[in-house]
């Protein structure tokens, strides 16, 4: 079951077309501002990635200013996904996206909250699919690499591609795995 992931990816592709995006990195901040959504960066609790709300007809995306810029980009794209896909759920209600920190191989990683990590919250699944397609569009990935010969285990190659798209290597790895 896709939980509306195809619809979410299509919505992201429509945004990319609307804004004439033809190269990486995708200018997610510019897109948000052109969509008349107020973007606010504030130091938040470490576990809080971002939030989305519409109050008094003002759309707002809040982003944790303490997170890495790549994480902030994904949060912005994810919250934009909520504004595009779930607008009616944001009116007068603050939608908060929490993550939690874990250590993987000695490296600190921010993961989604337990419900999101389980892959059971349909709105979160859709917002993640939207964010992935927005920041790492299929058409740009296919232009840059030969998917049939790209090695997901090649750390240098993965890091270089992630750097080009201004996303984390983990986000790029998950995105590329979706092609298989």
Automatic annotation (TrEMBL):
It comes from the Bacteria. Residues 37-177 form the IrrE N-terminal-like domain. This is ImmA/IrrE family metallo-endopeptidase.
């Amino acid at each position: 079951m896709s939980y509306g992931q195809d619809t979410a990816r299509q919505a992201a592709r429509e945004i990319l077309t609307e804004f004439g995006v033809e190269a990486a990195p995708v200018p997610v901040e510019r897109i948000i501002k052109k969509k008349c959504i107020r973007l606010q960066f504030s130091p938040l609790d470490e576990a809080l990635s971002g939030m989305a709300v519409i109050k008094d007809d003002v759309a707002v995306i809040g982003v944790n200013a303490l997170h890495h810029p790549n994480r902030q980009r994904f949060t912005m794209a994810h919250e934009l996904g909520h504004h595009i896909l779930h607008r009616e759920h944001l009116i007068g209600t603050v939608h908060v996206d929490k993550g939690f920190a874990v250590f993987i191989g000695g490296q600190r990683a921010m993961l989604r909250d337990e419900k999101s990590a389980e892959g059971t919250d349909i709105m979160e699944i859709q917002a993640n699919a939207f964010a992935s397609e927005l920041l790492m569009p299929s058409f740009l990935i296919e232009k840059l690499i030969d998917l049939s010969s790209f090695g997901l285990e090649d750390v240098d190659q993965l890091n270089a591609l992630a750097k080009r798209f201004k996303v984390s290597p983990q986000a790029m790895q998950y995105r590329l795995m979706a092609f298989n």
